[in-house]
Amino acid sequence: MSDILAQTTTVPALDLKPRSNNYWIGVLRRISRDRLTVICATVLLALILIALLAPWLIPADPYKTSMIRRLLPVGSPGHFLGTDELGRDMIARLAYGGRMSLLIGVMPVLIAFVIGSAVGIFAGFAGGRINMAIMRLLDVFYAFPSVLLAVAISGALGQGTTNSVLALTLIFIPQLTRIAESATTQVRTLEYVDAARMSGASSLTIIRVHILGNVLGPIFVYATGLVSVSMILASGLSFLGLGVKPPEPEWGLMLNTLRSAIYLNPLVAALPGAMIFITSMCFNLMADGIRSAMEVNE
Amino acid sequence: MGFYVLRRVIYALPIALSVTVVCFLLVHIAPGDPLNAVAPADAPVEVINALKVAYGFDQPLPVQYFRWLGRALAGDLGTSVATGRPVLAEVMTAVVNTILLAVFAAVLGFSLGAVLGGMAGYRHKGIVDRIATALSVIGVSVPHYWLGMVLTIIFSSKLNWLPAMGAGPGGSKEWLWDAEHLRYLVLPVTTLAVIPLGIVTRTIRALVADILSKDFVQALRAKGMSDRAVFLHVVKNVAPTALAVMGLQLGYLLGGSILVETVFAWPGSGFLLNTAIFQRDLPLLQGTILILCMIFVLLNLLVDIIQPAIDPRMRRS
């Protein structure tokens, strides 16, 4: 799915008109009129709430195993979505699993967003040789298929949630840095930045006042698109046995341990993957919605 | 043209070299002493020291790197800790299987994506466009390892049409061109093809729609050119970018097939990588990644060279 990362990393020419508060109100208004985006946002919000409030919403214990209740089918009394290969309640596992899956999916993008923006803005603002050096160094990462790089890094570091988050963060940083750098370079050459510099504004002030406002938008849009990829990859690493450790509930790991059950109880075995699919699709569609709401010229 | 090719090759060299550095360092970020794999934990200090010298671990890192690079260039990637076989031989057998899978998946995904994306671009907002858009969203959102499981449940477990695992009857690892072996390809290839399908459809749809909206197309139509001739113009304009995207996608398939190979127990490089990771077979891990990345670098170079050959505009710059 790096494969998915192949979406081009070129930044379209920015709409560089000064943006008033009205702009963001406009973005919110356009998003609220976009039915598909609203539905996706609602589904995601519901998933997040269920994951957070699981101890209060779900009576069953996600860790409680039962030898006699193994692999019950969907619709069993007391276990509406059945039980897994160790007899644990699937509803509880799926609800609690959302905590870890969402966390390890969103975290890498969040960290990479902060680091990538900082490095990219610095490179773009510094310009010249410093910029060249940073960007050439990042080119090396593009010589790796990103799934392979993620697997290699987390494989070398060993199994663990932190390691898999670290591996994914590393593969997202170069892409976000590239977006930030190219946006900053575009803004830096504008006349009002020159004017600000001539009137004695310090570099920090220029970055804070003139650059951040124009640059964070495109980086944010790109980053929202990455969340869906990150969800699939993070759970994928757990599926390979590289991420979350058992008995912790996590959708990718659950999919892995239930693989042996696909002949006995296919519906239950497929459930965790369906959760990853729904989440990732909602993130994807929401990112599309945000992008089109932000790119409209007023 | 010759000069252009040369420049591209020269530009690819430092990239290839940096890839080797990363692959080399990969083993050194791994926790634990690399000697743990060969020496028992209670080995006396003298033995450990002797082994350190024998493996060259007593040397500073740069020295170790250049020695390793020299051996790698000569085709010696070390020996697998788990099997005792040379890493290069292990990787080569597996990579051939992965390439087989990736190429079939690419052909299926690219052609389907091109047809679907092209039709969607022509009929903007039409029914085909809606189907193509939906398919491309599903294509990029679906966890393909899960899709592989679902296909196995349907076509292997329920319908019993296709084999679920392996590359041939009786766990055979050698590929043969017969109907029996081809049956084993169907599920993994279909699963893998979904990955590029979404992106290729999306790209071609956008490209075609963009070109059809250009003034020159209007002009061609206005002077009475047939639809078929206009179509040829569109193809000519779409091809270079589409080719670049497809080249990248093929490369990603080589690296990204690891999850699909694991689901179908396909004896390819992803499966090998998985084994290497869980047996802590670091030379095998390093060798597999090195070979796959070199293929990826080569593929990117090839796209860079082919692109201007079919797009005269790029030759001038």
Describe this structure in words.
The complex is a heterodimer of chains A (298) and B (317). Helix content of chain A is 70%, strand content 0%. The model of chain A is unreliable at 1-10 (pLDDT under 50). Chain A has twelve helices and no strands. Chain B has 317 residues and is an all-alpha fold. Chain B has a domain at 94-279: MetI-like (MetI-like fold). Chain B is built from twelve helices and no strands. The longest helix of chain B has 38 residues, at 227-264. Chain B is globular. The model of chain B has no long low-confidence stretch (mean pLDDT 83). The interface between A and B is large, with 51 and 56 residues.
Oligomer: heterodimer
Distance between the termini of chain A: 35 Å
Order of helices and strands of chain B: HHHHHHHHHHHH
Please name the fourth-level CATH homologous superfamily of the domain at 98-295 in chain A: MetI-like
> In the CATH hierarchy, what is the architecture of the domain at 98-295 in chain A at level 2?
Orthogonal Bundle
The CATH topology label of the domain at 98-295 in chain A is MetI-like fold
Q: Which class do the helix and strand fractions of chain A yield?
A: mainly alpha
CATH topology title of the domain at 94-279 in chain B? MetI-like fold
Helix content of chain B: over 70%
- Largest beta-sheet details of chain B: none
Strand tally of chain A, please?
Answer: 0
Rounded mean pLDDT score of chain A: 84
